[in-house]
Task: structure prediction
Amino acid sequence: MRAPLAGGTGTAHKTDSGYGWRVWTAVAAGGLLGTELRYMLGLLFPDQPGEMPWATLGINIVGSFVLAALTTIWIARPQTAFWLRAAIGPGVLGSFTTFSAVVFSTDQLTRSGLPGVGLLYLGLSVLLGLAAAAAGWRTGRVLGASRGFGGTGPFGGTDGTGP
Amino acid sequence: MTALLVGLFGIAGALTRFAVDGWLAGFPSPRRHWPWATLLVNVAGSFVIGLSVGVTSVFGPEWHAALAAGFAGGLTTFSSWTTATVRLASERRYVAAAANILANLLLGLAAAAAGLAISGG
Result:
């Protein structure tokens, strides 16, 4: 008999890329949640012809902020379970936000004779998405540092890495 | 029914994205990290959403939603793209950050247009 793998069921759940079944299940569950949330928001706030897809824009801004914040929090707290990080990061937030809908809507707005709206939508998505990620990155750093992990926070400059 | 299909296809997209990420991370590389996996899934998903336009007339609107909102939406990611860009900028790798923005946008737009052209949209 083989030795049981992580997860303790005794069967070979380990896959080629090395993740355990728990991680794949977590990503699948997170992917379902993120996709359905995005889909429901799209039904609640449907795209209007000739207008910017506001729901997708909002989704991508919020998702960028949250993922960047969690990324820096998790850098400060590496002990967070990997399956949990996988469920929330690549799972929920990766599926909640979408890139394909942004370029497709830009393409469609341009083709329907509204290249200005398309370009504005693309520009806003990129600029506001990056701004949200930058704000989230800083927020997560402050939150991660304030919980006493690492000395790079505003009050923890004893290691000489501060500005 | 449509919501169920979208969810199942979204799971497939998310798992594919996660698999690509793990697969590319498995290659030993002397170069510093650059988000190749996100570029790959974003370009592939943009191609799929273009292709999905032709699906409506053949299989019906619920399968279009499954492919576009479900699979392409689950496969591609905006938050990883913006977060990775900010991370590169925080490491003062400004050229890599700018290349990440431009490569995703230009190749993504081209892939969506190519998918659309093939599907006859």
Remarks:
- Confidence is low (pLDDT under 50) at residues 1-15, 150-163 of chain A.
- Chain A touches chain B through 52 residues (CB under 8 Å).
- The radius of gyration of chain A is 20 Å.
